[in-house]
Amino acid sequence: MTTVAEAAEPRSAAKLIDAYLAALPQPQRDTLTALRVTLRELLPDAEECISYKMPCFKVGGMAVAGFDGFKQHCSYFPHSGNIVQHVSGIPAWCTVASKGTLQFPVDRPLPKALVRRLVRARLDEIAAKAASRRR
Hints:
- The chain is of the alpha+beta class.
- The protein has helices spanning 10-23, 28-42, 112-134; strands at 47-51, 54-59, 62-69, 74-77, 95-98, 101-104.
- Strands 1-2-3-4-6-5 form a 6-stranded antiparallel β-sheet.
């Protein structure tokens, strides 16, 4: 079932994410705001939305990246169980919590180069799936 937040217009979805981030305690707020800025730079045409009750960036209707803040860590979600394990250069201070979750300290933003590799891997995966469906 789609919630009101998930069905929101893009402009109001961005405002929902603004409110989501504003409600987080420090340092999670600054850490995840930095991640959002990086994702906006890497995905300028992406739709920002709320998916699974967390901020998400979608391209062509497909979730590419999401994030959330917790008491003891922040998490990056590539919305695929095949991405995190195949991306190189994950710092020792990050934890691969599951096939589809990368956890990192609340006070330490993910390096832009790592986020770029995660996003590229997800976009490549989406393109490969689309190509295989066309065959």
